[in-house]
Structures are given as C-alpha cells and as structure tokens.
Amino acid sequence: MIPLVHDFTGETVLIFGGGPVGARKARRFDREADVVVVSPEFADAEFSGARLVREAPDAEDAASWIDRTTPALVVAATNDADLNAAITETARDHGALVNRADESGERDVGSVVVPATVRDDPVTVALSTGGTSPALSKYLREQFEAEFADSGEMARLTADLRETLKSEGVPPAERRDAVRAVVRSDRVWKALDRGRSNVRHVATDVIDEHTGDLS
Hints:
This protein is an alpha/beta fold. It has helices spanning 20-29, 59-69, 81-93, 134-147, 151-167, 172-183, 186-193, 199-214, and strands at 12-16, 34-39, 51-54, 73-76, 97-100, 116-120, 123-127. It has two domains: 12-114, NAD(P)-binding Rossmann-like Domain (Rossmann fold), CATH 3.40.50.720; 151-214.
C-alpha cells in the first residue's frame, strides 16, 4: 500500500455502523467531510458533527444510500461480516474508496486504511501498520506527539524565513541549506518549546552562523 493524503473538504463520508469503531471513524472525518452514519443504534456521546440515520441497512439499502450521497469514502463498520462485504462490493461498483473496519492485514485492491494521525497544523504525520496492529500504531502516535511537539510552529517559522530569504534574493540552494539548518537546530526547537518570543531571532542567528561556516 502507498500512503496518500486526501482532502475531504466538501466530500461525503458514509459510515455503516454506529458502534465504537464507527464513532471513531466519524470523529476522524467530521473535521473536514460531511459525515453520514447509518446504524440502528449509536454509541452514546461519541458523535459530534455527523448526520445520524437510525436504520438497520441490508445490502440493498446500502446501495441506495451510496446512490443518494455519492460518497468519496464508504466505511463498512457493522458487526455483520457478510453485510460489510456487500457494502464494500457495492461501494467499489460506485467508484468510492472503501475502508472495511473488520479486516486487518492484507487488503483488497481499492481498500483504504485509516492511519493513526499526529496533527499540529499545518503538519500532519500518519502512522499505519497496514491494519495489523492498532496497538502499535497508537504507541507510535504517542511517541511522535511527544517527540515532535511544536512542529506546526516550526513549519510556520521556516515558511516565513524561506519567503524572507527569497525576497532578499538569496539563491534557492542557499535558501534550502539555511532553512535546513534551522530545522536541525536544537536551539530553535528549545526556543519553540519554551514559548520564547525571540524564536525568529534565534533562527536568524543560526542562519548567520551557517552562512559564516560556508564562507
């Protein structure tokens, strides 16, 4: 499987199954997508912005819902393996991406694995074990959250520095090396971690030192 990042803004994600797994998927996608959850029952207090439809779908009903909502992604998260298989087949026939929540390991062509995610906008890190070990994915996510705190601020800082260097006429190769020096600087990361107001000044010092080393 090859990881891709997909923007679900304005798209519909259709989820069959309202238990804890369906709820977790709904929470993941409702930050961007229009989420519709079809289920006879719903996990209490687990849904936020999703549209909930209290219905126990069969394979024919699933096809009808896919026709009506034209989803970008269909999640089969019911407790019925045969129904999940039928939903998966129907979704593929309609050209939608499919995430079948009751499968792990090897996946059929066209399947989507929803990874564990570390997000510090604009930085997003996705971690996946191919569905084989959710526990490991969670552990790695927690490690990344601790290790790469302030990565969003670093991204914004270096984007600003890159634009400043560009406006000053610094050649592309030198801009790239300067920004790379900032990203690799423990001093800059420590300044970000401590919330210091002079982070940009620290980063500029690092660039000046790097430029001096090259001269």
